[in-house]
Design a protein that fits this description.
about 70 residues, mainly alpha, single chain
């Protein structure tokens, strides 16, 4: 496990509420959800090396009809 570094984050209240709901839906902590969102964004844009686990999750999410309504 990599070393984690804490920092303060100022975030819009509505955005935080949406992240908290999403985290609860995914059975994650709010902090874990924010980390997951950032990690996936960095890997998807090629700014962080992808691993097989993430690629497989992305393939599954692309085939799940529930995820097609994200945007």
């Amino acid at each position: 496990m990599s070393k984690k570094k804490g920092f303060a984050l100022r975030i819009d209240e509505d955005l935080l509420n949406a992240i908290e709901k999403w985290a609860a839906d995914e059975f994650r902590s709010t902090n874990g959800q924010i980390e997951w969102i950032i990690t996936h964004a960095l890997k998807r844009t090629g700014r962080l090396k992808k691993d097989n686990k993430i690629e497989n999750e992305e393939e599954l999410s692309n085939t799940n009809p529930e995820n097609n309504n994200e945007e």
